[in-house]
């Protein structure tokens, strides 16, 4: 393993940064204290070109190399999740209802570690754009940063990101040359029936029965309208209706998610869902409205950049610790917007045998922060060599 020595020497300092961030989580676009912490560290490193207030609390910092050249973008997300921290660590969240249970505190720390090293050595020809992004979990801070013009404004030609991955061997790096994470859509169905007494259902139009039928009908889209070979998930995750055991309610609501890689498959799911909702409701003598909300697009790596990133990863962690053909998974990522705007690649960094992301007992593994920081640093030095 070829972890950069000076970054390995930062292990204790990086752990301190990460645990501070873990104790002070923030949500969505409102990462004000996190951004201030990041800016303070960047200034300590001697970085002078720092741009704040992008996507409300996003930060972009530029490090100039020893000679002119291309600009490489490195991205880290900063936001936490609206849930309790049950990790029982000494550095557990101090903010009720907010927790860094996806490891964005670790991602920010890795990019800060790379920033410190690159600012000290500047052993590259070109520029590095450090993209500290809010709101990966919900509002799509990556989309907002792209829409606000960060790629053009800072001349970014390629962009790279890393996400920790529980269950993968500690310090390993995985990626592939194409689809890596799924597109994410959300749907809500509002059903309107006729309420009444539970002992006289014949005098009602029962939305609970309709909701149950819709759930089963929606599941028939997969395998009947979508090929079993396509990677599509349709999940109804919420059903809300009723107030008492003897009252047929007036309304019911269903809510869920669609995950996909192919946009034709996405369109088919949406069309069939619209048809099923309308005609299922009519068949039961009531009305229903589908609110279908497209979300993050699929995260699609660019083949050349993914191959390059994998080669750098092998130099950092060794060939036996890199999988360049990892299968795609169905969670989503708003780094997808950056990959739509510029060539680049996204990688998974092994967290070891820990609780999964979004679990209340999850905590980022501080041992892997120097690995991620070294990968970012070596990627820049390899992509932008000093001649």
Task: Please explain how this structure is put together.
The radius of gyration is 24 Å and the shape is elongated. The strands form four sheets. Strands 1-2-4-3-5-16-6-15 form an eight-stranded mixed β-sheet, sandwiched between helices. Strands 10-12-8-13 form a four-stranded antiparallel β-sheet, covered by helices on one side. Strands 7-14 form a two-stranded antiparallel sheet. It starts with a helix and ends with a helix. The protein has two domains: about 5-180 and about 300-385, 3-Layer(aba) Sandwich (Aminopeptidase), CATH 3.40.630; about 185-295, Alpha-Beta Plaits. It is about 35% helix and about 25% strand. With about 375 residues, it is an alpha/beta fold. The protein contains twelve helices and 16 strands. Helix 2 packs antiparallel against helix 4.
Compact overview of the structure:
The protein is α/β, with parallel strands linked by helices and 387 residues long. The protein has 12 helices and 16 strands.
Q: CATH H level of the largest domain: which superfamily?
A: Zn peptidases
The H-and-E topology, N to C, reads as: HHHEEEHEHHEEEEEHHEEEHEEHEHEH
Largest sheet: 8 strands, mixed
DSSP E strands, number: 16
What's the CATH C level of the largest domain? Alpha Beta
DSSP helix count? 12
Low-confidence stretches: none
Q: How would you describe the shape?
A: elongated
Helical amount: 25-40%
Distance between the termini: 26 Å
Structural class: alpha/beta
- The count of domains is 2
CATH fold category name of the largest domain: Aminopeptidase
With strands numbered from the N-terminus, the spatial order across the biggest sheet is 1-2-4-3-5-16-6-15
